[in-house]
Specification:
heterodimer, A: about 350 residues, mainly alpha, 14 helices, B: alpha/beta, Rossmann fold, six-stranded mixed beta sheet, 22 strands
């Protein structure tokens, strides 16, 4: 035990190892305890609320399917955010890269028509990833060439993406009718639903794969190692012959590609067309979820499931007990507060040094 | 007569080390009391306790015969105890006066700054203690020696009767040291107590009345300066004769491995830092670069490593022009670097020992397919390095931040030397290390030289340069002003050159 176990845990869960995992779990428990107090004060039974939320989220195969459906896009956006953060970059424009990926995949899904699905699906995914990576490379180039701070540029470009994609589905690619949306993508570009009647699609497998792949990438590959060295101490990384500019470009491109992949999967698996405003802010959720997950891919996956369960279980709870859905927002906020605030502060402090 | 300061049975332990072990220490009014010991002997800890920065585990402190409870620097200041740290705590953009009064500003009606009184008070202190300072100049324009005087003024302005000077001469030229000594004598004449922390025998003997020697956290003894000698103090300090003299090679006689020609580059602030520097480093030699800090040493090292863009000149390795090549190319061609700032340049504190050991070779030695890191090889390598370089760590997976400074430096040295370099750039390689680690790093540098590497040793410590170097170069304001064989010069001459003297 000892060194070997903590070493193993650290490899999966990042630098803090077991202790880091404990922090997350304890923080989430505290959030639920405080949430129970809020429920009790407002005159609801915390026990009834939590039981109905849990059974709604996990009590049936339908519940599990919907929970995972809600979790899937956040898995991508949270991992996208943490890949940037590992290299010391606050890519807070995940939402924009997610939307650009979704738009790229939509167009590829519509216009690369006539291909067999074994080719069409991967190509659609590729186009989505490239679109996301392209959108993230703009701030990366601005940073490495001109020193423009990525917090400003990624956020601004995120709004540009929101309005740009919404323009596209309102004018050039608008489907006939009153709704601002594109036409449906070709059937050969769809990801199959795997648990009808839930919306759960094969995108969940892609999410699992990206979790494993990004863990491997960060822990085992040369570029992952170099990105982390750059994020933790750019001066020492530079001294060791690692190009800081290259690290910025690579990590932003990968971050954007994963966000774009998330957008592509959401279109290909759930909506099958780009509908204006289809994302309730998955990209923004990703930032918080990555921090709740302890800034590592596996943690992000489970934190995404937790957030998916809160969303899905919350709706069931509201129907069953009459507790307002707002409690879900309160719980999410509490979890983020207890987990992410010290994390975020620590990350920010490290950057300042 | 009661002592100004009396510390009785003070003990302070940190995890794994007892920094102070039942230390008794006292200093009288109008006394200059030296506190002598090797790095890590517990001098700074003892004085940090007196200044309230650390809380002792046991023991008590008497100020003017009365028991004092010092739980922070503000308590210490109220009791008339001031401290000048090795690293100055001044605001660079503020003027001398503004720095001195900071936190104790005299006001008109409690709202406006009383500028007139500020200027008058500070000017008075300068005159009284013969501290020559332009009090309206901003700090960043002042030399290190003058900044130190500002720190002393600051302490005096806060009513210090006891002034602790922590290794005050380590950043000074010989001339500046003499001025500091004059100021310290003025303070004594005014009835102040000065506690002078140092590990330099000569200086302590020159300025102090009494000297207390610490060794591994314990008091070896207190002696009167006029009754003792360098030899006696050295023996008390180390317990045995430490020989830092390594056999030196007379001449290199080989082609230079590193040639710097008319090198020019800017500092971070955009002003010329290296201004037409020429230097040849031969294989199988240690070339010491002596100089007061801030004369272009940092920029020189960065220029050689490819970390800083040149504005002119060329860098040649083995006769091959490597000007403009990126750091990675230089590392591969055999340039190793022990950076002066370990935490900033040398290690990634949140990486494990293993991850730090492979840093820089991750694309060469520690990969087989060019994509992923060969952790089996890395693990074997770090086990070997931990053994060979006697790195005290619980294991290769331990984060390096949890290691002592000496062991972190061993990791850096192991990593850099395992690449079998042609040129080693060693910047302040033993700064902050204890005796054992210092000796170890120095021995390794000599081994590298004997193996044929050229070692460029940049150090502010003349004793270190003397102990290791075959030749010594003096850097002053971005130029090499002299290169001498160590046997043909002495520390006085080099000291003068370091201060800009003797340039015809």
């Amino acid at each position: 035990m000892g060194e070997r176990l903590t070493g193993a845990v650290r490899r999966v869960f990042g630098g803090d190892g077991l202790q880091g995992l404990m922090i997350q779990v304890v923080a989430i428990l505290i959030a639920f305890i405080v949430g129970a107090a809020v429920l009790a004060i407002t005159g609801y039974s915390p026990l009834d609320a939590y039981v109905s939320m849990a059974s709604g989220a996990f009590g049936s195969s339908y519940g599990v399917g919907q929970t995972l459906t809600q979790a899937t896009p956040i898995v991508f956006t949270s991992i996208a955010f943490l890949i940037g953060l590992k290299a010391g970059l606050f890519n807070i424009g995940i939402e924009g890269q997610f939307l650009m990926g979704a738009m790229g995949a939509t167009l590829a899904g519509i216009y690369l028509d006539g291909l067999p699905w074994v080719i069409h699906v991967p190509m659609t995914i590729m186009v989505g990833m490239i679109a996301g990576a392209f959108w993230a490379l703009i701030p990366a180039v601005l940073k490495s060439r001109l020193g423009a701070h990525e917090v400003i540029t990624t956020m601004m470009l995120s709004y540009v993406a929101t309005h740009f994609t919404s323009y596209l589905v309102n004018y050039p690619f608008k489907a006939p009718g009153w709704v601002a949306q594109s036409v449906k993508i070709s059937g050969s570009a769809e990801l199959p639903r795997i648990l009808p009647p839930t919306q759960l699609s094969a995108a969940i497998f892609v999410a699992v794969m990206i979790t494993a792949a990004s863990t491997y990438f960060l822990q085992k590959t040369i570029i992952g190692y170099e990105l982390r060295a750059t994020g933790l101490n750019p001066s020492a990384a530079e001294n060791a012959g690692i190009s800081i500019d290259r690290s910025i470009l690579v990590s932003m491109a990968l971050s954007g590609a994963v966000a774009g992949l998330g957008g592509a999967c959401e279109i290909m698996g759930i909506h099958r067309r780009f509908i204006q405003g289809f994302s309730p802010g998955y990209g923004w959720d990703g930032l918080a979820v990555a921090l709740v997950g302890g800034l590592n891919p596996v943690g992000s996956f489970f934190a995404s499931v937790l957030f998916g369960a809160l969303r899905n279980g919350g709706m069931i709870m509201t129907r069953a007990t009459g507790v307002p859905l707002d409690i879900v927002n309160i719980l999410q906020a509490l979890v983020i507060m207890f987990v992410a605030a010290p994390k975020l502060i620590r990350a920010l402090l490290r950057r300042e040094q | 007569m009661t002592s100004a300061i009396q510390m009785v049975g003070v003990t302070k332990a940190f995890p794994g080390v007892t920094a102070n072990d039942h230390v008794d220490f006292s200093a009288d009014k109008a006394e200059i009391h030296g506190l002598l010991g090797e790095n890590g002997a517990g001098k700074s800890v003892l004085m940090s306790i007196l200044y309230g920065l650390y809380k002792p585990d046991s023991g008590e402190i008497l100020v003017n015969g009365e028991k004092a409870d010092i739980s922070g620097p503000s308590d210490a200041m109220r009791l008339g105890i001031g401290m000048v740290h090795q690293h100055f705590m001044l605001v660079p953009s503020l003027t001398v006066v503004e720095n001195v009064i900071l936190g104790m500003e005299p006001t008109v009606n409690g709202v406006l700054l009383n500028t007139e009184r500020m200027l008058r008070d500070v000017a008075d202190s300068c005159k009284r203690y013969k501290l020559d300072v332009d009090i309206e100049a901003p700090i960043y324009q002042l030399s290190v020696g003058v900044q130190q005087r500002v720190e002393i003024l600051k302490a005096l302005y806060r009513g210090a009767d006891v002034l602790i000077l922590d290794e005050p001469t380590s950043v000074l030229t010989p001339g500046e040291t003499e001025e500091l000594f004059n100021a310290v004598r003025e303070l004594k004449a005014d009835g102040k107590t000065v506690i002078f922390i140092s590990h330099k025998l000569r200086e302590v003997l020159a300025i102090c009345d009494r000297i207390t020697v610490l060794k591994r956290g314990k008091v070896v003894g207190t002696v009167l300066a006029w009754e003792t000698s360098e030899g006696q103090l050295a023996e008390m300090m180390v317990g045995r004769e430490i020989v830092y003299e390594f056999t030196k090679k007379a001449e290199c006689g080989l082609e230079p491995v590193l040639t710097l020609e008319s090198l020019e580059c800017l500092s971070d602030r955009g002003i010329p830092a290296i201004r037409g520097l020429n230097l040849d480093l031969c294989g199988s030699e240690i070339l010491g670069v002596a100089g007061v800090e801030g004369n272009g040493q940092t920029e020189l090292v960065e220029a050689v490593m490819g970390l800083r863009d040149l504005t002119g000149g060329t860098v040649k390795l083995d006769g091959q022009d490597i000007t403009g090549t990126p750091p990675r190319a230089r590392i591969q061609m055999g340039v190793s670097h022990i950076p002066e700032d370990r935490y900033k340049r040398a290690i990634v504190p949140d990486f494990s020992v293993l991850q730090n050991l492979i840093l820089g070779s991750q694309r060469d030695r520690f990969t087989r397919n060019g994509v992923s890191i060969d952790f089996a090889e890395a693990s074997q390598f770090s086990t070997n390095m931990i053994n060979d370089y006697q790195i005290a760590t619980p294991g290769p997976e331990t984060l390096i931040r949890y290691l002592s400074g000496g062991n972190q430096q061993r990791v850096v040295v192991a990593r850099e030397f395992s690449r079998d370099p042609k040129v080693v750039i060693a910047a302040q390689p033993t700064r902050g290390l204890d005796v054992g680690a210092t000796e170890y790093v120095r021995r390794k540098l000599v081994e590298m030289r004997d193996g044929g590497a050229g070692v460029l040793l940049i150090s502010a410590d003349l004793d270190e340069i003397w102990a290791l170097s075959d030749r010594v170069a003096v850097i002053y304001e971005g130029r090499i002003v002299a290169v001498k064989d160590v046997d043909e010069t002495d520390q006085q001459e080099i000291g003068l050159l370091m201060a800009g003297g003797g340039i015809g």
